[in-house]
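Appendix B, Record 12. Input sequence as logged:
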Amino acid sequence: MYGSAQVRAVDEVSLHIPAGTVFGFLGPNGAGKTTTIKMLAGLLTPTSGHVRLGGFDAARQRPAAMAQFGAVLEGSRNVYWSLSAWQNLMYYLLIVLFMGRGQLRADLLLPVLLGMVALTFIHEQVNRVFWSYLGDIQSGVLEQTYLTPLPSAASILGRQGAAVISALPTALAVLATGATAVTVQGGQVPFDMQVIVPLAAIAVGTCGLALILSGLTLVFKRIEIITQLSVAVYAIAGGTLVPLAAMPDAIALISRLVVPIAPGIEAMRDILLGGHSLFALPTGWGVGWLLAQPLLIAAAGVVAFNRLERLARHRGTLGRY
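Logged structural output:
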């Protein structure tokens, strides 16, 4: 049945698609295109015939067949409904980056794992502060905050401390997943107390970013697309997945200058994977810039927030709306 009509679909379908071929699978509504794909994926059992993917029988050799197959099906069931967008992203990134065609990518696991731990902190800090700040604006709580002698920038930095603490369980979950994968393969997860310094630098630098986004929230209110875009840009250009040394020189230069997580990720990889001392980092610009960059970004954040706050007062957007 398709709608209220009874149609004949997936009738004697026979396909042989050579490897490396780009193949368009077209047909009118109700012809059975999605049904065919679901049978290829093993979600439906065909009434007759058989399916082979890359030479493997989809019914009898399902694990090997599924290693040759991937699909994004229509509708809204492509993610876990009980998880947030970020949690879905983290879940699938862990699967994709840790597994390549069904096998552990040991060469990528640890470097990417360190980058994802850093990205978890920046995501939690930026999003928690933005949504809590926007909620205070909408509820009128922020107006009461301005009646206290506490500098408004200081209240945001306080939120940042709470956000860092809240990010710890998520970061530890990511770390534990990666550590389990490494251990199962007979590897070891290195640890060095020196890594606390770049982690702290990431948290401090992200405070500056959160201050800027909070200032923009005062002026323009709902800027969630900007917060999500900033995290996405940092994930791509901040050395999370691809080391800055492997990027074009111009992008690596900009990232080391303005991306809060970039120097920290480089330092963590040098310390944990390269066995280098904090004071002899071979990549990046050394421990001096590792410590100076987050402080400069935090200071820039305070200045930008104060200017945006004054603009919000002139525009009348400081209070609820």
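The mean pLDDT is 76.
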